[in-house]
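Input:
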Amino acid sequence: MKALMQDRPLLISSLIEHARHCHPGAEIVSRTAEGPMHRCTYSDVHRRSKQLAKALQVLGVRNGDRVATLAWNGYRHLELYYGVSGMGAVLHTINPRLYPEQIVYIANHAEDAYLFFDIGFAALVERLAPALTSVRGFVAMTDRAHMPALALPSLLCYEDLVGAQDSHYEWPLLDENTASSLCYTSGTTGNPKGVLYSHRSTVLHSYAACAADGLAVSAAESALLVVPMFHVNAWGMPYAGAMCGAKLVMPGPALDGKSIYELMRTEGVTLALGVPTVWLTLFNHVDTAGLDPKKDLKLDRVVIGGSAAPRAMCARFESEFGARAVHAWGMTEMSPLGTVCNFLPKHAGMTTDERLDVLARQGRPVFGVEMRITDDEGRDLPRDGKAAGHLMVRGPWITAGYFKGEGGQILDADGYFDTGDVATIDADGYMQITDRAKDVIKSGGEWISSIEIENAAVGHPAVAEAAVIGVAHPKWQERPLLIVLKKPGKQASRDELLAFLDGKIAKWCIPDDVAFVDELPHTATGKLQKLKLREMFKDYRTRST
Ligand code: AMP
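Output:
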């Protein structure tokens, strides 16, 4: 029997329509590329994204055309999120931290029709333009007074385009499975691959982000998006924000510790989201400036994802900021939300140490994400919190295939996607990543988790950042090598660090050696570049070999 419920499509335009009616005055605060702070509301974003949609029509942008951005977090970028997808085109957010050749590859692969850019990227755009074969026009996201002087034949001004239109525009009633946005994976190996989101997947993902056991975003929130809008849609917050009416605070290009701290203070930020490396920068600023975050800030929760949240980082947010660390895991292919580490009633009354043990896990899947772990033959492994296997996921906001069929068929017979992560799952559904499959250290037939060792090592007061890789060993095949970046002015010897790890991890997982470096390589999304580290240390022989 067919049900008798209305069949309204789940559309991105309905999010901004809802915000306009129900949260018209909720603020969007941005640090602009031009310098000053800018304040507007969802009502303004609604009006201007309609003006933008009309302007795109005038430019000849049609359903399905890709419109690219090279931009930091800010209100104009938010208008593009709604204007481009809302009118039926596809928003392609490009990571400006990629190598120029990668940007060219991505833009050409996506066949971007227009490129919108922050004026800070003007020189980069001018350099890349001749190689961008499909781009018909370049739009500087600024007003006439700040237009960069560029030798580009088709240079347009964002405010001129938007200002030339009124806001009388009806969003098209699209099929909810229409493509809405495109984001390329960071591509640590091979060329980046495109993940093509839909209106439906985006709206469903927003419900999960707002859910109490998701990120619990609400109208009461002042949310600081340190995670960039070019990295998996800033973890979906630009959409979830409009769904629930959260105030959004956008840091623009200023991602240094001082600027982030000031934004948290002046905008009464309650929820902040970012990768571990940005929080390290924040901690450095707090240390050097001798600040008292508990007194200055209203921070309630900090979402940490993208890489494992080190225990010491969660502890510091709790003790020094009075904020709860919320560990979350996901990936570009998952829009990105997969799991969130929230507590259960049975965790009430736990000691701080026990709470931190729970927080070391990446959390439980939000409803909509099905997970399982398998062995190398694809057999299910037990959910006992001990067996580690390939983490497989399935759900309505998880990719079914890469753009233009790159990588071929990527789902298994049951429709599961292999995340490339290795993890355990316990009886309550808490998942814990032990490694990327390609970073696992195989020692004498056992797997050693590099993440577990890294987490323990950054608990040492002299360690700013730690990376663990496997190095060749004649007897054990591989043994862990701990690579350490020390905090400025702090000292720690090899033996002291190894002694520190004793008792914190299993004896046979203790690294054979420690190497000290002045810098650790990161990818364009802030992850440790283990591939590069393995190259750097490929001839390394530990002291025990
Ligand atoms: P990306 O697609 O760039 O967001 O990268 C996704 C990958 O980042 C995942 O497959 C994980 O390997 C890693 N990752 C994301 N969040 C976490 C986390 N909380 N802990 C450990 N690894 C993470």
